[in-house]
Amino acid sequence: MEEFYILDTCSFYSYCCKYLNIFTDKDISLDDNSLEILYKAFNSNNIKIIIPSVIIIEIFDHYFNNEEFINKFKYDVYYYLINNGNEDNKIAVIDIDNEVLENLFDCYSDTVTIDLHDKLILATALKYKEHNTTLFTSDRRIKKIKRLNKLPINIRS
Questions:
Q1: Which domain CATH number covers 127?
Q2: Beta partners for 48?
Q3: What is the pLDDT of residue 84?
């Protein structure tokens, strides 16, 4: 059975820091073991990597502040993702579709304040719950929502 790895913004950022040298502040939130697993996944044909489109939007919102960075991200990261996704369907940037929007209802909590982009990442993970799926995140709020709402996804940090 094909495995699916879904990245949240922090795990994608951590991967880009360590292996693509795209960010300069080097604040890596995933542990070394998880980063090594992601590295192997990005270089394997047995694992499909899912990147919710909201991650690209969030990076655009927080980091696109100069032309040099924008060009580096575009050519070193974005085109890499798009080209690999189109060549062998190994990497996919997933749009917000009706299923993801419907899954948002399962990501609500009265007791945990969680940003919309994090709910969208969880909702995207729920879209792939029928696959052998792991969400890579170090976000405590995402983990808490998963636990409180008994969401059927695996999490690795």
A1: 3.40.50.1010
A2: 4
A3: 67
